[in-house]
């Protein structure tokens, strides 16, 4: 997304006309610009506005000024720099989309949750997206780039699913087996780890394809899955018969 495209997007989302924005920039920020100048900036082919003007526009449009300033700075950068940054952003977004399309979802609810998370990333500003990706320490992009998917290969499908869960994808608690620690309907964020410790609360995919949330206890070649709610049974399952999708990172209750 170029500076002009990003500017057009935030102006449209603000609900203000160009004339309104020009007036508010002067009134709120003591920055004088015209509606015609804003129109030219939107059309592109012109040097981006100064930092002072961009901060005024961002304040009026109620966005983070650093996002608009980033796009302006990127627009002014040498073409070779712009090409690299735009390529990396496009590569990461295409990678997420491609990975999502190859995940064998257990149910429609999981599909909706994951796609909502995907849209969250795709709708970020370029600055926010780069910052977010750089903070994802658990994600190994070499695994993604080397991954080849065969639609008939269950192992590779599961690998894709696990890799995407390293992006802390959210799921919903479908029962009250972990009540009162986790209430039914709570939104859960997972993080994929290389190792899990006794006492970790994890999401586990069973051999029948169902996913459950339980406390993890290792017992030799088996895993003991403990519910918080005693109305649910404790399961002892071979390590080979489960897929750990991730450790519970955060739990959100919607009021």
Topology:
Blueprint: H1 3-14, H2 18-29, H3 35-43, H4 51-61, H5 65-76, H6 79-101, H7 108-122, H8 126-135, H9 141-146, H10 154-165, E1 170-172, E2 187-191, E3 201-205, E4 211-219, E5 222-226, E6 235-238, E7 243-252
Antiparallel strand pairs: 1-2, 2-7, 3-4, 3-7, 4-5, 5-6
Helix pairs in contact: 2-3, 2-4, 4-5, 6-7
Q: Which spans of ≥5 residues are poorly predicted at pLDDT below 50?
A: 137-169
Radius of gyration: 23 Å
What is the assembly state of the chains in this entry? single chain
Q: β content, as a range?
A: 15-25%
Q: What is the average of the pLDDT values?
A: 80
| Largest sheet, strands/sense/barrel | 7 strands, antiparallel
Question: Tally the helices: what do you get?
Answer: 10
What's this entry about, in short?
The protein is 48% helix and 16% strand. It is α+β, with helices and mostly antiparallel strands and 255 residues long.
Which properties best describe this structure?
255 residues, alpha+beta, 7-stranded antiparallel β-sheet, 10 helices, elongated
What does this structure look like?
Helix 2 (18-29) crosses helix 3 (35-43) and helix 2 packs across helix 4 (51-61). It is built from ten helices and seven strands. With 255 residues, it is an alpha+beta fold. Mean pLDDT is 80; it is low at 137-169. The protein has helices at residues 3-14, 18-29, 35-43, 51-61, 65-76, 79-101, 108-122, 126-135, 141-146, 154-165; strands at 170-172, 187-191, 201-205, 211-219, 222-226, 235-238, 243-252. The protein has a seven-stranded antiparallel beta sheet.
